Amino acid sequence: MSNMKISSFEEYHQVYKHSIEQPEEFWAGIADNFQWRKKWDNVLSWNFKEPNIKWFEGAKLNITENCLDRHLETLGDTPAIIWEPNDPTENHRVLTYKQLHDKVCQFANVLKNNGVQKGDRICIYMPMLPELAIAVLACARIGAIHSVVFGGFSAQSIADRIKDAECKVVITADGGFRGTKDLPLKSVIDDALVQCPSVKRVIVLTRSRTPVSMIKGRDVWWEDEIKKVETQGNPECPAEEMDAEDMLFILYTSGSTGKPKGVVHTCGGYMVYAGYTFANTFQYNPGDVYFCTADIGWITGHSYIVYGPLSQGATTLIFEGIPTYPDAGRFWDIVEKYKVNILYTAPTAIRSLMSFGLDPLKDKDLSSIKVLGSVGEPINEEAWHWFDDHIGYNKAPIVDTWWQTENGGHMITPIAGITPTKPGYATLPLPGIQPVLVDENGKEIEGNGVSGNLCIKFPWPGILRTTYGDHERCRLTYFATYENMYFTGDGCLRDDDGYYRITGRVDDVLNVSGHRIGTAEVENAINMHSSVVESAVVGYPHDIKGQGVYAFVVSPNQHGGDAELNKKDIIMTVQRIIGPIAKPDKIQFVSGLPKTRSGKIMRRILRKIAEGDTANLGDTSTLLDPSVVDEIKAGAL
Ligand code: WTA
Asked: N- to C-terminal Cα distance for the chain?
């Protein structure tokens, strides 16, 4: 397993060179560190035109054999999962590799008993419990395709995702705890399922024991189903043999247009990439306790709570709650309690904890920390230094990992303790990754001290294969903007030393607290409100969230004439249609939007106004009605 790990900066340069000159040989060498039922006939075949990308064709495997079975002999009694509850007075739980293996097999048998077959799509909507990881792995065990939906999405968003993938089964819990909140998960699922005839079965885990409706013939309790499996007396569940290019999971993510798309990852390439990046970036050593604070509902949780760490025999900590409950010292209590060695979190969490000052850190022993990680959005230098000074005591390297749902794993990142770090920089590509910067015409910008749009010019095993049910959308979104390149949607700078700094999205996607939100999606939701004629949504700098959501709304006939109440109605509409994560932070009612004569909204102007940068709005003479700009400027919030 450790044969993949780079051990010096010098070796990094050698390995990187090899990975570019002989990519197939390089990746075959990495893939040799995993367990295959049968090895590949062909390492890679690809074109970015269609696109058609296949890794390790002809190989057979099951990812759960790599995450569980292969560790049983050596690590059977080692903790695989440590679970810390929302309420610090509740008991924590530890599952060894042996116990996790047994629980995954058991639940895989539950799925089989409930009619789940290889290739079926399963929606998972659960709180951060070991059972969420168990559900994910049980699907993978039998070749069912999981689609995990983050707990912050509304019934409507879940329904859209279930319908798109035609899911047959939903796995959920009665409710969940996050901070002081009780999340009524089953009730949200019930609302979603009104629209979803494909769902034949709902498996409900007991967590909060909040009252729930259980529909005869459709809904069953997780615990009852486990009992049935126990009385059947067959604790094993042989892993289904999968082709390397069989689908492993779908994960929905937002883009600049229309509805969220289902990013598809496949078994072989994803496994290799998640395991390779986990081992290298964090330089995990046996016995280390690793804590990633993301939710399993996002790609970070898929790759760096479940598949990456488990494939490497690591101990992965799952936390049910939030950083500020019961107080802003919670993360540090957890670090101290379990002697966490590697802490991987998000800039928004760091900024939020920074705002409480240093009091919550008093008397906390963080000396176990060896490596810190950041993900999800650009980390500002102030947050970087606070993290470095107060959490890492200036001795733990910070790995600022740049990557995307579509990438499967880290792309540009320091390797902890091996390659240099630089505040605000994701620094250098991992071996195997070939980033390029291009100008608007798609021409590669060479040399250092330059910036442009970030593309990748050669495939890696974790690249998305398609968007579920709509391959053309995949082509158009990622492979059509620039010929023969994967386009990331991010702007990027390469400094004089050749280090990369991600500057943010160049498309209409916002990054709010590290969550990707398409402005078009929020506009669609706002426009569904009965009094709204049209709207335009842009981002603006927000101290904690990174970006906030600013909505300009045309709504001439407001109910009751009370603007504040109407704003609340609009916010409630967005919450219903998308979920609380997309709620606008600011709503400004305007009489019209700045449009060109051809009817296109000039977002550039709105963005500047939202940012408070109204001195230089650029050329407004092409606008249909330049006077609306003055009105909008005057009313800016
Ligand atoms: C942004 C999250 C700067 C970026 C893993 C990307 C980052 C989007 C970083 C993907 C980082 C992620 N520095 N920006 N270290 N990591 N991003 O799909 O804009 O939820 O395109 O994947 O987050 O978000 P996603």
From this structure: 54
Residue 33 lies in a domain: no
Substitution site in 307, 413, 490, 547 for ligand 1 pocket (most atoms within 8 Å of beta carbon): 490
State which residues form the domain around 308.
Answer: 98-235+243-322
The stretches in the chain having pLDDT less than 50 are: 1
Residue type at position 198: S
Residue 16 Cα, ligand 1 centroid: separation in angstroms?
23
Question: Which of 322, 341, 364 is at the close of a domain?
Answer: 322
Q: Is 61 within a domain?
A: no
Structural domain contains residue 442: no
Report the number of distinct structural domains present in the chain.
2
Per-residue 3-state assignment (H helix, E strand, C coil) for 167-216: CCEEEEECCEEECCEEECHHHHHHHHHCCCCCCCEEEEECCCCCCCCCCC
**Does residue 302 line the site of ligand 1, with CB under 6 A?**
no
377 in ligand 1 pocket by Cβ < 6 Å? yes
Ligand 1 pocket residue status of 300, Cβ below 6 Å: yes
Q: Give the domain-ending residue among 285, 300, 322.
A: 322
Task: Check which CATH number belongs to the domain holding 192 and give it.
Answer: 3.40.50.12780
- What does the pLDDT read at residue 106? 97
Distance, CA 377 to ligand 1 centroid (Å)?
Answer: 5
Provide the pLDDT for residue 1. 47
Region class of 318: left (phi > 0), else alpha (psi between -120 and 50), else beta: beta
